[in-house]
Amino acid sequence: MKQTARGVALDALLSMENNEGYSNLVIDQALRSAGLDRRDAALASTIFYGVLERKLTLDYYLKSCLKDPKKKLDKVARMALRCGAYQICYLDRIPDSAAVNETVNVVKARGKASLSGFVNGVLRNLIRNKENLQLPDGEDVRALSLWYSVPQELIQLWQRSYGNEITKSILVSFEEKSELFLRVNTQKTTPEELKASLAEQNAELETMPFPSGSAILREQGSPASLPQFAEGLFHVQDLSAQLVCEILDPRPGEMICDCCAAPGGKSFTLAEKMNGTGSVVAFDLHPNRVKLIEDGAKRLGLTNITARTADMTKPINDAPRADKVLCDVPCSGFGVIRRKPEIRYKSLASVKELPQLQYDILRNAADLLKPGGMLVYSTCTLNPAENGEVARRFLEENPGFAPMNIELPGIRRVISEPDHHFTMMPFSGASDGFFAAAFVKTE
Questions:
Q1: What is the Cβ-side half-sphere exposure of residue 282, based on CA atoms within 13 angstroms?
Q2: Catalytic residue at 380?
Q3: H-helix or E-strand containing 16?
Q4: Which of 83, 245, 257, 380 does the annotation list as catalytic?
Q5: CA 80 to each of CA 162, 191, 207, 263: distance values in angstroms, whole numbers, following the listed order
Q6: Is 0.85 topped by the overall pTM?
Q7: 386 CB contacts (<8 Å, ≥6 apart)?
Q8: Which residues neighbour 151 within 8 Å (Cβ) at sequence distance 6 or greater?
Q9: Model confidence pLDDT, tens digit, residues 213-258
């Protein structure tokens, strides 16, 4: 059966629902398997990410078009309705009739011909009512949830933690398109040289003053398809992640440990900033992810990186003492919703055990330091239980450590917190929501 853009989007969304995969990996695999041309691949990606980003809003619209809103829907029909509704409500270039007909065809092709009439009827009812569709007015949590398609409990967490104004700014920022940030491999080229080289591929690179070596790649498909990527002239790394490396402030000749390091972006940046000298030991739990670090370091020509398999929830007794340790722990990911829209639907109950895991990893990471060494704890989430509360507990229970103040030029502090904490917001000069805390080992 020949794959279509809408069929690929539907199958990828069902895979996400059934297996809870990462959106970028799921759609990339689906597109590779389908072999769609560029135009159809773009449409499949648009529908896929659009449904993930707007699921709560779409369900609200569709509910008004059902004869029995409480009736449990077949999962294929429900997801197909979301795909069709997204096209009808958000994709002006697609005629409504085409959105309906193609969605019905996809349902039939998935062996659900008996439901095709139902899907057709609901979508045509949506078209008839489209001009009258309205979301609730106001700034109450239910209205915000439907306007921004973020679960109410997550909005309430942010309101309790950061206040209503900052919460609204977070919601607005997560609707904006994320920039594609690169890290120039300064061991092989300069930002200006890479910009000129990419221009020959009709790729536009905007270099940034801070952090040095950071840049934005604009209007480009997969960066991995560029010859400059294969040559190891850059790696893809979000700006907020680069800022965490700035906080650690690696220096040539130092010994640095990067805990929970895969796929290796921060290790690569640290090694480059050390001018290829010293040593970066990158730990990760899974051997296949350790290989990702090794492969990336080889592509970039970074010979001062050693990747090791290690369980950071347990003490590491055979590692050399480090000058600096980066502890970027597994987290809920509520700060990277703009790039991974599925994360917004995680329940708070599903992440309540994370702070203890994070603390255990941080405590073992601290044991890798020399006296006088620097420790940076970081996450990519906006959840105080995983951020400031873990950092506060660490200082309380580890008297051999003291706080180190953090400053980031051009990045605004928007919440009140200790000077050795820094919560980066996606609207404050950073790209994603990140948290970092810095400590020095005094004993």
A1: 28
A2: yes
A3: helix 5-19
A4: 380
A5: 37, 45, 42, 34
A6: yes
A7: 331, 332, 351, 354, 355, 358, 379, 435
A8: 56, 145, 344, 345, 347
A9: 999 998 667 788 899 999 999 999 999 999 999 999 999 999 999 9
